Protein backbone atom coordinates (compact mmCIF):
# COMPACT_ATOMS: atom_id res chain seq x y z
CA UNK A 1 0.00 0.00 0.00
CA UNK A 2 1.41 3.45 -0.96
CA UNK A 3 2.20 6.23 1.50
CA UNK A 4 -0.80 8.38 0.47
CA UNK A 5 -3.28 5.65 1.39
CA UNK A 6 -1.53 4.90 4.67
CA UNK A 7 -1.59 8.61 5.51
CA UNK A 8 -5.29 8.79 4.59
CA UNK A 9 -6.15 5.88 6.89
CA UNK A 10 -4.12 7.44 9.71
CA UNK A 11 -5.94 10.76 9.36
CA UNK A 12 -9.26 8.93 9.03
CA UNK A 13 -8.63 7.07 12.28
CA UNK A 14 -7.67 10.24 14.17
CA UNK A 15 -10.62 12.25 12.85
CA UNK A 16 -13.12 9.50 13.61
CA UNK A 17 -11.77 9.06 17.13
CA UNK A 18 -12.31 12.79 17.63
CA UNK A 19 -15.78 12.38 16.09
CA UNK A 20 -16.77 9.72 18.64
CA UNK A 21 -15.45 11.78 21.57
CA UNK A 22 -17.24 14.91 20.32
CA UNK A 23 -20.51 12.95 19.95
CA UNK A 24 -20.22 11.62 23.51
CA UNK A 25 -19.65 15.15 24.80
CA UNK A 26 -22.63 16.41 22.81
CA UNK A 27 -24.84 13.75 24.40
CA UNK A 28 -23.59 14.71 27.88
CA UNK A 29 -24.44 18.36 27.23
CA UNK A 30 -28.01 17.56 26.13
CA UNK A 31 -28.79 14.25 27.79
CA UNK A 32 -32.54 14.88 27.81
CA UNK A 33 -32.56 15.24 24.02
CA UNK A 34 -30.36 12.22 23.31
CA UNK A 35 -33.14 9.69 22.70
CA UNK A 36 -32.81 6.14 21.45
CA UNK A 37 -33.00 4.76 17.93
CA UNK A 38 -36.05 2.76 16.90
CA UNK A 39 -36.42 -0.05 14.38
CA UNK A 40 -37.27 2.45 11.64
CA UNK A 41 -33.98 4.32 12.19
CA UNK A 42 -31.99 1.08 12.00
CA UNK A 43 -33.75 -0.06 8.83
CA UNK A 44 -33.33 3.36 7.22
CA UNK A 45 -29.59 3.21 7.85
CA UNK A 46 -29.33 -0.34 6.50
CA UNK A 47 -31.34 0.41 3.35
CA UNK A 48 -29.82 3.77 2.43
CA UNK A 49 -26.20 2.81 3.11
CA UNK A 50 -26.77 -0.39 1.17
CA UNK A 51 -27.65 1.86 -1.77
CA UNK A 52 -24.74 4.13 -0.92
CA UNK A 53 -22.22 1.31 -1.33
CA UNK A 54 -23.72 0.58 -4.75
CA UNK A 55 -23.03 4.17 -5.83
CA UNK A 56 -26.59 5.50 -5.56
CA UNK A 57 -25.92 7.64 -2.49
CA UNK A 58 -27.57 7.85 0.92
CA UNK A 59 -28.42 11.50 1.63
CA UNK A 60 -31.36 11.93 -0.75
CA UNK A 61 -33.03 8.55 0.02
CA UNK A 62 -32.62 9.14 3.76
CA UNK A 63 -34.15 12.60 3.55
CA UNK A 64 -37.07 11.18 1.60
CA UNK A 65 -37.66 8.56 4.30
CA UNK A 66 -37.42 11.23 7.00
CA UNK A 67 -40.16 13.25 5.29
CA UNK A 68 -42.32 10.16 4.87
CA UNK A 69 -41.88 9.27 8.56
CA UNK A 70 -42.31 12.85 9.74
CA UNK A 71 -39.14 12.87 11.81
CA UNK A 72 -36.69 14.32 12.64
CA UNK A 73 -37.69 17.96 12.20
CA UNK A 74 -36.43 19.62 9.03
CA UNK A 75 -33.79 21.82 10.67
CA UNK A 76 -32.16 18.71 12.20
CA UNK A 77 -31.90 16.76 8.94
CA UNK A 78 -28.54 18.11 7.60
CA UNK A 79 -26.77 17.37 10.87
CA UNK A 80 -28.44 13.98 11.24
CA UNK A 81 -27.36 12.96 7.73
CA UNK A 82 -23.71 13.85 8.34
CA UNK A 83 -23.53 12.35 11.83
CA UNK A 84 -25.64 9.27 11.15
CA UNK A 85 -24.03 8.15 7.91
CA UNK A 86 -20.45 8.65 9.07
CA UNK A 87 -19.94 5.08 10.30
CA UNK A 88 -20.93 3.70 6.90
CA UNK A 89 -18.71 6.26 5.14
CA UNK A 90 -15.76 5.15 7.29
CA UNK A 91 -16.39 1.51 6.37
CA UNK A 92 -16.72 2.31 2.66
CA UNK A 93 -13.52 4.36 2.68
CA UNK A 94 -11.50 1.51 4.11
CA UNK A 95 -12.97 -1.04 1.69
CA UNK A 96 -12.91 0.96 -1.56
CA UNK A 97 -9.66 2.87 -1.09
CA UNK A 98 -7.93 -0.44 -0.37
CA UNK A 99 -9.46 -2.27 -3.35
CA UNK A 100 -9.26 0.33 -6.17
CA UNK A 101 -5.94 1.90 -7.21
CA UNK A 102 -6.63 5.45 -8.38
CA UNK A 103 -3.82 8.04 -8.58
CA UNK A 104 -2.75 8.83 -4.96
CA UNK A 105 -2.20 12.54 -5.69
CA UNK A 106 -5.67 12.94 -7.17
CA UNK A 107 -7.21 10.94 -4.35
CA UNK A 108 -5.49 12.98 -1.63
CA UNK A 109 -6.09 16.39 -3.20
CA UNK A 110 -9.78 15.81 -3.93
CA UNK A 111 -10.46 14.47 -0.45
CA UNK A 112 -8.63 17.39 1.15
CA UNK A 113 -10.52 20.00 -0.88
CA UNK A 114 -13.88 18.40 0.00
CA UNK A 115 -12.98 18.42 3.70
CA UNK A 116 -12.09 22.13 3.62
CA UNK A 117 -15.34 22.86 1.79
CA UNK A 118 -17.30 20.89 4.39
CA UNK A 119 -15.73 22.86 7.22
CA UNK A 120 -16.83 26.10 5.59
CA UNK A 121 -20.30 24.87 4.65
CA UNK A 122 -21.17 23.31 7.99
CA UNK A 123 -20.30 26.52 9.81
CA UNK A 124 -22.96 28.31 7.79
CA UNK A 125 -25.64 25.61 7.77
CA UNK A 126 -25.47 24.93 11.51
CA UNK A 127 -26.84 28.44 12.09
CA UNK A 128 -29.37 28.71 9.25
CA UNK A 129 -33.05 29.23 10.13
CA UNK A 130 -35.51 26.40 9.59
CA UNK A 131 -37.07 27.83 6.40
CA UNK A 132 -33.71 28.39 4.72
CA UNK A 133 -32.79 24.75 5.38
CA UNK A 134 -36.14 23.61 3.98
CA UNK A 135 -35.58 25.60 0.78
CA UNK A 136 -32.01 24.34 0.35
CA UNK A 137 -32.92 20.73 1.00
CA UNK A 138 -36.02 20.83 -1.18
CA UNK A 139 -33.88 22.11 -4.03
CA UNK A 140 -31.20 19.52 -3.25
CA UNK A 141 -33.70 16.69 -3.48
CA UNK A 142 -34.97 17.89 -6.83
CA UNK A 143 -31.38 17.97 -8.09
CA UNK A 144 -30.82 14.44 -6.79
CA UNK A 145 -33.99 13.15 -8.47
CA UNK A 146 -32.83 14.73 -11.73
CA UNK A 147 -29.47 12.96 -11.43
CA UNK A 148 -31.19 9.60 -10.89
CA UNK A 149 -33.38 10.11 -13.96
CA UNK A 150 -30.45 11.28 -16.11
CA UNK A 151 -28.45 8.23 -15.08
CA UNK A 152 -31.25 5.88 -16.12
CA UNK A 153 -31.67 7.72 -19.43
CA UNK A 154 -27.92 7.38 -20.13
CA UNK A 155 -27.48 11.15 -20.23
CA UNK A 156 -24.35 11.06 -18.07
CA UNK A 157 -20.93 10.96 -19.73
CA UNK A 158 -19.55 7.43 -19.99
CA UNK A 159 -16.14 8.44 -18.64
CA UNK A 160 -12.69 7.50 -19.89
CA UNK A 161 -10.14 4.86 -19.03
CA UNK A 162 -7.66 7.00 -17.07
CA UNK A 163 -6.99 6.43 -13.37
CA UNK A 164 -5.23 9.81 -12.99
CA UNK A 165 -5.79 13.42 -14.07
CA UNK A 166 -3.15 16.04 -14.83
CA UNK A 167 -2.84 19.76 -15.53
CA UNK A 168 -6.04 21.78 -15.81
CA UNK A 169 -8.17 18.63 -15.44
CA UNK A 170 -6.55 17.98 -12.05
CA UNK A 171 -7.24 21.59 -11.00
CA UNK A 172 -10.90 21.49 -12.02
CA UNK A 173 -11.45 18.18 -10.23
CA UNK A 174 -9.96 19.49 -6.98
CA UNK A 175 -11.75 22.84 -7.17
CA UNK A 176 -15.18 21.40 -7.83
CA UNK A 177 -14.82 18.92 -4.98
CA UNK A 178 -14.41 21.87 -2.60
CA UNK A 179 -17.87 23.03 -3.70
CA UNK A 180 -19.35 19.54 -3.41
CA UNK A 181 -17.95 19.17 0.10
CA UNK A 182 -19.54 22.45 1.15
CA UNK A 183 -22.90 21.46 -0.35
CA UNK A 184 -22.96 18.23 1.68
CA UNK A 185 -23.71 20.40 4.70
CA UNK A 186 -27.13 21.25 3.28
CA UNK A 187 -27.92 17.66 2.36
CA UNK A 188 -26.71 17.59 -1.26
CA UNK A 189 -24.88 14.29 -1.68
CA UNK A 190 -21.40 14.34 -3.22
CA UNK A 191 -21.59 11.12 -5.27
CA UNK A 192 -23.51 12.13 -8.39
CA UNK A 193 -21.88 15.52 -9.08
CA UNK A 194 -18.41 14.18 -8.28
CA UNK A 195 -18.82 11.16 -10.56
CA UNK A 196 -20.17 13.33 -13.41
CA UNK A 197 -17.28 15.79 -13.09
CA UNK A 198 -14.65 13.07 -13.11
CA UNK A 199 -16.29 11.32 -16.07
CA UNK A 200 -16.31 14.58 -18.05
CA UNK A 201 -12.62 14.98 -17.26
CA UNK A 202 -11.87 11.49 -18.61
CA UNK A 203 -11.46 9.42 -15.43
CA UNK A 204 -12.55 5.78 -15.38
CA UNK A 205 -15.89 5.61 -13.44
CA UNK A 206 -14.42 2.88 -11.22
CA UNK A 207 -11.70 5.32 -10.18
CA UNK A 208 -14.35 7.70 -8.85
CA UNK A 209 -15.46 5.28 -6.11
CA UNK A 210 -12.46 5.55 -3.74
CA UNK A 211 -12.46 9.34 -4.27
CA UNK A 212 -16.16 9.63 -3.46
CA UNK A 213 -16.00 7.24 -0.52
CA UNK A 214 -12.80 8.78 0.86
CA UNK A 215 -14.17 12.31 0.57
CA UNK A 216 -17.37 11.39 2.43
CA UNK A 217 -15.36 9.41 4.98
CA UNK A 218 -13.61 12.62 6.07
CA UNK A 219 -16.16 15.26 5.07
CA UNK A 220 -18.93 13.88 7.28
CA UNK A 221 -17.04 13.81 10.59
CA UNK A 222 -15.54 17.26 9.91
CA UNK A 223 -18.98 18.70 9.13
CA UNK A 224 -20.40 16.91 12.19
CA UNK A 225 -18.16 18.81 14.62
CA UNK A 226 -20.15 21.98 13.91
CA UNK A 227 -23.45 20.19 14.43
CA UNK A 228 -22.18 18.72 17.70
CA UNK A 229 -21.45 22.26 18.92
CA UNK A 230 -24.90 23.58 18.04
CA UNK A 231 -26.81 20.41 18.88
CA UNK A 232 -28.71 20.59 15.57
CA UNK A 233 -29.01 16.89 14.86
CA UNK A 234 -31.15 14.02 16.15
CA UNK A 235 -29.06 11.87 18.49
CA UNK A 236 -31.21 8.73 18.51
CA UNK A 237 -31.88 8.74 14.78
CA UNK A 238 -28.19 9.33 14.04
CA UNK A 239 -27.24 6.35 16.18
CA UNK A 240 -29.80 4.17 14.39
CA UNK A 241 -28.46 5.21 11.00
CA UNK A 242 -24.92 4.42 12.16
CA UNK A 243 -25.69 0.93 13.43
CA UNK A 244 -27.89 -0.07 10.51
CA UNK A 245 -25.64 1.59 7.94
CA UNK A 246 -22.57 -0.53 8.70
CA UNK A 247 -24.55 -3.70 8.02
CA UNK A 248 -26.00 -2.19 4.85
CA UNK A 249 -22.51 -1.51 3.46
CA UNK A 250 -21.23 -4.98 4.33
CA UNK A 251 -24.25 -6.65 2.73
CA UNK A 252 -23.82 -4.61 -0.47
CA UNK A 253 -20.08 -5.24 -0.75
CA UNK A 254 -19.85 -8.88 0.24
CA UNK A 255 -23.25 -10.49 -0.43
CA UNK A 256 -24.89 -8.72 -3.37
CA UNK A 257 -23.80 -9.88 -6.81
CA UNK A 258 -26.68 -8.77 -9.05
CA UNK A 259 -29.31 -6.10 -8.48
CA UNK A 260 -31.66 -4.24 -10.88
CA UNK A 261 -30.06 -0.81 -10.29
CA UNK A 262 -32.01 0.72 -13.19
CA UNK A 263 -35.36 0.00 -11.56
CA UNK A 264 -34.04 0.94 -8.12
CA UNK A 265 -32.90 4.38 -9.35
CA UNK A 266 -36.36 5.08 -10.82
CA UNK A 267 -37.99 4.11 -7.53
CA UNK A 268 -35.61 6.34 -5.58
CA UNK A 269 -36.18 9.21 -8.04
CA UNK A 270 -39.95 9.03 -7.50
CA UNK A 271 -39.69 8.91 -3.71
CA UNK A 272 -37.10 11.69 -3.60
CA UNK A 273 -39.25 13.92 -5.83
CA UNK A 274 -42.16 13.44 -3.45
CA UNK A 275 -39.91 14.39 -0.52
CA UNK A 276 -38.65 17.48 -2.38
CA UNK A 277 -42.20 18.71 -2.95
CA UNK A 278 -43.05 18.04 0.70
CA UNK A 279 -39.97 19.96 1.87
CA UNK A 280 -40.70 22.96 -0.34
CA UNK A 281 -44.36 22.96 0.79
CA UNK A 282 -43.12 23.01 4.40
CA UNK A 283 -40.93 26.01 3.54
CA UNK A 284 -43.92 27.77 2.01
CA UNK A 285 -46.02 27.03 5.09
CA UNK A 286 -43.25 28.38 7.34
CA UNK A 287 -43.20 31.61 5.34
CA UNK A 288 -46.98 31.94 5.61
CA UNK A 289 -46.81 31.53 9.38
CA UNK A 290 -44.04 34.13 9.62
CA UNK A 291 -45.98 36.64 7.51
CA UNK A 292 -49.12 36.07 9.57
CA UNK A 293 -47.18 36.62 12.78
CA UNK A 294 -45.74 39.90 11.46
CA UNK A 295 -49.19 41.12 10.35
What does this structure look like?
The protein has helices at 3-29, 39-53, 59-69, 77-84, 86-99, 104-125, 130-152, 167-183, 191-200, 205-230, 235-254, 261-294. It is an all-alpha fold and 295 residues long. The chain has one domain (3-131, 158-259). It is globular, with a radius of gyration of 18 Å.
Write the layout of secondary structure elements.
Elements: H1 3-29, H2 39-53, H3 59-69, H4 77-84, H5 86-99, H6 104-125, H7 130-152, H8 167-183, H9 191-200, H10 205-230, H11 235-254, H12 261-294
List keywords for this structure.
single chain; 295 residues; mainly alpha; 12 helices; globular; disordered C terminus
- Uncertain segments are 289-295
Mean pLDDT over the residues: 83
Helix content: over 70%
Largest sheet: none
Determine the strand fraction and express it as a percent band. Answer: under 5%
Structural class: mainly alpha
What would you call the shape? globular
Number of strands: 0
Please give the count of helices.
12
From the alpha-carbon coordinates, what is the Rg to the nearest angstrom?
Answer: 18 Å
* Total count of domains: 1
Spatial gap, N to C terminus: 65 Å
- Helices and strands, in order, run as HHHHHHHHHHHH
Summarize the structure.
With 295 residues, the chain is mainly α. Helix content is 77%, strand content 0%.
